[in-house]
């Protein structure tokens, strides 16, 4: 191998790692045309050196010692696809300190320690790219950082977790309860054995923290993302939503108004004509609204061996191009905007509420009175056929109200003797024109 | 103005030009944070210096002499948003020869003379960026060149002309004929007084030539794009399409199989579950299929003052960042793949045919016989209630067949005495799984 070879150390040889190896081998000629360099995988860090692999490797290529990559002076770039926080964080930090560039698909790490790692990289004149960490095969980070560099992004709504989107799609399609569909998703390999990070919304929250940081150019941390998962969603919620013209999805929302920011992940009702409403199964999509550009949407596979590998190897191409130009670590813009988070009085949305109430006369008047007292007006009210003895079911969709107002209404509803229980409540996102 | 100011010459002060001026002024601080430079518009080339402008300019800023920009050594970057081929081509060429970088929104020019201008730029170490030339506010060129640099793109389907998409959307919504809707679109400013370049598909063809060149990395020229416009589309076609579960859209298709390429623009039937089927009005969208990534889709406003201006100014940001790094003109990869165009025997698709036939017994058998002889099998056949005396109407959707086979079937149909006329024929594009 001559001067025109770039040597890469690969950390992790799971699904994505194998995809990266395949892509580099299959597209060697194309990659050479674009970068002027051959890409050679010099070392691969694995947990078990002796395990049988689908990709055949030469002797000595696999190692279980991170030092074999980190202290190898021949290796210019480390590709980290092992996942998890430690030891990935330690390895990446060390790689950067050794002057190696880093490409990672690790959203957990970037959401939690991105700022730290990017600052080490800046000090050492190294690149850290992480396109694969959000929405797999969709080049959304590039779009935010470069495509919309001239615009001011006001809102991003994303379906950024394929597992939960698959579960909610199936719940809608089959009318089946959460637990049953989750089990099926696990059998099919769409959900992990421990599904908590997906179904509790944490995985989506990590991606929204990354999108918010890049889109709004503020140093956003994971704790600032309000999270609610989908474990409580019932098939009835999904069906009632549909009856009223909405689709129930787990969405991340990052919104900026008058310089103040909110970021959240929650199951929410999307209007049927919302660009994200038709995103089904394990697909991901992100709607980006810019002051000047208006509404755009990016759609594609959110995970999977090859889609994620394309994002990783495209980042690798960028690093190598920058190496040739000698400009690594100099193109990144650190978050520079002042971060101000919205208070609950400043977060505005429409809400869907499903209530079980006493089936007696005057209930509706008393309910609407509680909303009126908090100055929350109602867009739609639907009284359902009685399901149980002495209980009626009522669905309400409010006009835009603050989270603070909604909490006050909820308090009143909970204290009221006509309300048996608040069955569910969801944020509502309108369609194209709202 | 000090060392940290980059001086820009703006050619054209129409809709997009005014948007560019507004965006640079409104976002001066953000642009400074990203580029480390102030952007100053030094000269603006206009046809009429004395015309009243919505944007106020200092004295001496406007000029009607191109030399004032081209020979001004202070100007680093020329932004061309005047449109048309000449004199834009001459000006851009001259700007590059003077060592100035160029950002342009000019699809006509880039589709016809892009290769020439890019080669002059490469010689002089200058940048030419043209994100705004395709699909306005959608950063699709960046996605193709960078986001998917590691993948092999096999197909792109685009709704890349807002005017025709608006017209077809309205024809569907109102059942109105083409001429009437065109007239309305002209009144509303969605279509030009001379609508030929839009409705004949030429504007879309230019964009597809650009997408094909970048996506497939081949030197594609405009004449190689097969074009058919929408002037012959009838409300009946639109309605019959809808009845059969399809939406009629003007789409550009660029497809690559076994190293051979086809690029076309035509009204086509999209399956209702195709990601582009729900793209309505003046919006644009491009579906990109990659061997590794699978299916992705990019959606947004295809034109308009501010969306187009964001693409122009984002390109400007990239040029300025590259100036700071001293790497202009060195990142572009010229098309390097060998270009092989498919013959009609190699272009495969499904087709929709609407026929008026003699209303007599045995017609259907004779029709299907003609398809069978060319080995074209039928997916759907729909016989419509008789519309006129002695005429029956039949709609057929074929399974996948070559363009060559389809031509042979058409010949047979035209010669047959039972076929009164071929009312319409369209290519059909399936949904997600096809």
From TrEMBL, chains A, B:
It catalyses: L-homoserine + NADP(+) = L-aspartate 4-semialdehyde + NADPH + H(+). CDD domains: ACT_HSDH-Hom (cd04881). Its EC number is 1.1.1.3. NADP(+) binds at residues 11-18. It holds the Pfam family NAD_binding_3. It comes from the Bacteria. This is Homoserine dehydrogenase. NADPH binds at residue 107. The active site is at 207 (proton donor). L-homoserine binds at residue 192. Pathway: Amino-acid biosynthesis; L-threonine biosynthesis; L-threonine from L-aspartate: step 3/5; Amino-acid biosynthesis; L-methionine biosynthesis via de novo pathway; L-homoserine from L-aspartate: step 3/3. One of its GO terms (biological process) is methionine biosynthetic process. Its cofactor is a metal cation. NCBIfam families: PRK06349.1. Keywords: Amino-acid biosynthesis, Metal-binding, Methionine biosynthesis, NAD, NADP, Oxidoreductase, Sodium, Threonine biosynthesis. Residues 352-427 form the ACT domain. It is an enzyme of class 1 (oxidoreductase).
């Amino acid at each position: 191998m001559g001067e025109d070879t770039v040597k890469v150390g690969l950390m992790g040889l799971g699904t994505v790692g194998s995809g990266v190896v395949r892509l580099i081998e299959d597209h060697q000629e194309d990659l050479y045309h674009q970068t002027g360099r051959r890409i050679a995988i010099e070392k691969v860090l694995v947990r078990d050196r002796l395990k049988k692999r689908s990709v055949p490797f030469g002797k000595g290529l696999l190692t279980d010692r991170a030092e074999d990559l980190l202290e190898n002076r021949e290796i210019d770039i480390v590709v980290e696809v092992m996942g998890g926080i430690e030891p990935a964080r330690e390895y990446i930090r060390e790689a950067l300190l050794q002057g190696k560039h880093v490409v990672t698909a690790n959203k957990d790490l970037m959401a939690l320690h991105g700022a730290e790692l990017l600052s080490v990289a800046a000090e050492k004149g190294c690149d850290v790219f992480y396109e694969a960490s959000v929405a797999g095969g969709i080049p959304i980070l590039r779009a935010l950082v470069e495509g919309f560099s001239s615009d001011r992004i006001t809102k991003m709504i994303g379906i950024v977790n394929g597992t939960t989107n698959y579960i909610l799609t199936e719940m809608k399609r089959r009318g089946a309860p959460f637990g049953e569909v989750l089990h099926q998703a696990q059998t099919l390999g769409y959900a992990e054995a421990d599904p908590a990070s997906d179904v509790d919304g944490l995985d989506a929250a990590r991606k929204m923290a990354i999108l918010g940081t890049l889109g709004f150019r503020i140093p956003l941390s994971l704790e600032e993302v309000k999270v609610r998962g989908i474990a409580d969603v019932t098939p009835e919620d999904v069906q009632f939503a549909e009856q009223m013209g909405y689709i129930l999805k787990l969405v991340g929302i990052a919104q900026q108004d008058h310089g103040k920011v909110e970021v959240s992940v929650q199951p929410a009702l999307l209007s049927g004509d919302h660009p994200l409403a038709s995103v089904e199964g394990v697909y991901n999509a992100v709607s980006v609204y810019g002051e000047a550009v208006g509404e755009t949407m990016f759609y594609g596979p959110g995970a999977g061996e090859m889609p994620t590998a394309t994002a990783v190897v495209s980042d690798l191409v960028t690093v190598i191009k920058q190496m040739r130009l000698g400009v690594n670590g100099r193109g990144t813009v650190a978050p520079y905007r002042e971060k101000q988070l919205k208070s609950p009085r400043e977060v505005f949305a429409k809400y869907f509420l499903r209530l079980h109430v006493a089936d007696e006369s005057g209930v509706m008047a008393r309910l609407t009175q509680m909303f009126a007292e908090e100055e929350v007006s109602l867009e739609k009210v639907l009284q359902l056929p009685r399901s149980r003895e002495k209980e009626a079911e009522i669905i309400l969709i409010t006009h835009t109200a603050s989270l603070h107002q909604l909490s006050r209404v909820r308090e009143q509803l909970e204290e009221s003797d006509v309300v048996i229980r608040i069955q569910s409540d969801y944020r509502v996102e309108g369609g194209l024109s709202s």
